[in-house]
Write a structure and sequence with these properties.
Blueprint lengths: L1 H12 L1 H38 L2 H11 L4 H30 L3 H29 L3 H24 L3 H28 L8 H35 L2 H17 L1 H18 L3 H28 L1 H9 L7 H8 L2 H16 L3 H26 L1 H30 L9
């Protein structure tokens, strides 16, 4: 597990490449054009979840418990995504045309939507590799994806491509990264193919649907504030909040690395050693929350240089919402491990319930706070929603932890 965690940390560290691209984009585009780009990126993130709809998490868990199913699960999932990706892209086009009138913003959203299809397929391949605990190969895919994004995106901006050039670079980079992932799959799992089996598709959908709805809600929760800022306020404030949120998001990547490693391990332990499952999950929640608290303190103190050195003095207005978001870092770190635990014990309905309540809190607060307080209001709404979500998850998992205490041979679910 230590080796897997090291590989996962390498993958997570490549988020610095994405952050570097955001910094370069902010400097080349300025806060208004950068705000348009962030709107397209956030809206694309919402609809990207529809393309996967929980299949990634279901695949990781199923393969962790039965590695021999990896090839057939991969083929079924890739085929199912043809339907989901087409539907999600159509909905994204409708949402874009409803929310924004500017031709450049609309085109940016369309292009990001196309890049999201490539990323969704790449996510499926990564899920199979994670389920098999082949984190070394998975890290190669992630590194290639983000290095290509940085290289092509920087070139597009440097050559004067502006907003459109940057979004075209996203499509090209994600397409090339998917091609590399396909080559790795050919080497390790016998290649990529599409398979249809009515019963298998039915079982996958029934298992994935609760997780899928949860992930849709989770993405709406994460990105709703940025989209609502673009709608209720202006592109400049959207750009400031986008910069703050990107740095904040970067500070949470350590928790995502831990969660990625723990999800397959906890899934396997839940059916083999529930005492160990309980120890790792509770210890993981407490440990990551402590790490999050330390990072929050550092982030709060160094907020001004963290934002103005990379993005420029024009983004000094992003400091107040960033400091507010830092208050939620210990909560977010704990939530990532709580998500991994809930998936490992088949508590998809708990995740969905948590996501719906958290989204209702977040959006409800945003409807009042954003028009009155702008980016600061969006940040406060985010932290409040995170706190509510964490408390619900802890309350819901207490029963699972008590069930998990005895070994599997002497207890039952």
């Amino acid at each position: 597990m230590i080796r897997n965690f090291a590989y996962s940390m390498v993958s997570t560290a490549t988020a610095a490449l994405l952050l570097a691209l955001m910094i370069i984009a902010g400097r080349f585009l300025g806060e208004v054009e950068f705000g348009k780009f962030m709107f397209a990126l956030l809206l694309g993130g919402v609809f990207e979840t529809l393309m996967d709809f929980g299949l990634h998490q279901v695949t990781v868990r199923a393969i962790a418990r039965d590695p021999d199913r990896a090839p057939i699960l991969l083929r079924h999932t890739l085929a199912i995504k043809l339907l989901w990706a087409t539907g999600a892209l159509m909905l994204l086009i409708v949402a874009t045309n409803t929310l924004r009138k500017e031709p450049d913003v609309r085109m940016a959203c369309y292009l990001i939507g196309g890049a999201s299809i490539f990323r969704s397929y790449m996510l499926t391949i990564r899920g199979v590799l994670q389920g098999l605990e082949r984190f070394g190969w998975e890290s190669i895919v992630v590194i290639a994806d983000r290095a290509l994004l940085l290289t092509l995106g920087t070139y597009a901006l440097w050559s004067g491509g502006g907003l459109r050039g940057l979004t075209i670079a996203f499509v090209a980079a994600r397409g090339l990264a998917l091609l590399l992932a396909a080559v790795i799959t050919q080497m390790r799992l016998g290649g990529i193919a599409l398979t249809y089996d009515r019963e298998a598709w039915r079982d996958l959908h029934l298992t994935a649907l609760p997780l899928g709805f949860f992930l849709i809600v989770l993405n709406l929760y994460q990105y709703a504030d940025g989209v609502m800022l673009g709608y209720f306020r202006n592109d400049a404030e959207t750009g400031l909040y986008g910069a703050a949120f990107k740095v904040y998001e970067g500070l949470t990547y350590a928790a995502t690395a831990i969660s990625a490693v723990l999800t397959p391990r906890l899934s396997a332990l839940f059916v083999s050693d529930r005492t160990r499952h309980r120890q790792i999950s509770i210890g993981g929640v407490a440990g990551t929350a402590g790490i999050g608290a330390l990072i929050a303190i550092v982030g709060f103190i160094l907020a001004l240089p963290l934002l103005t050195i990379p993005f420029g003095n024009a983004f000094a207005g992003a400091v107040p919402p960033f400091r507010i978001l830092c208050a939620g870092l210990p909560i977010v770190f704990a939530i990532w491990i709580l998500h991994a635990t809930a998936i490992s014990v088949d508590r998809e309905k708990l995740l969905l319930q948590t996501g719906l309540i958290g989204l209702a809190v977040n959006v409800g607060l945003n409807l009042y706070l954003i028009p009155h307080y702008g980016p600061n209001g969006a940040a406060w709404a985010t932290v409040a929603g995170e706190l509510v979500s964490m408390l619900i998850l802890i309350a819901g998992l207490r029963a699972a932890w008590s069930i998990a205490a005895p070994p599997a041979s002497s207890g039952s679910r």
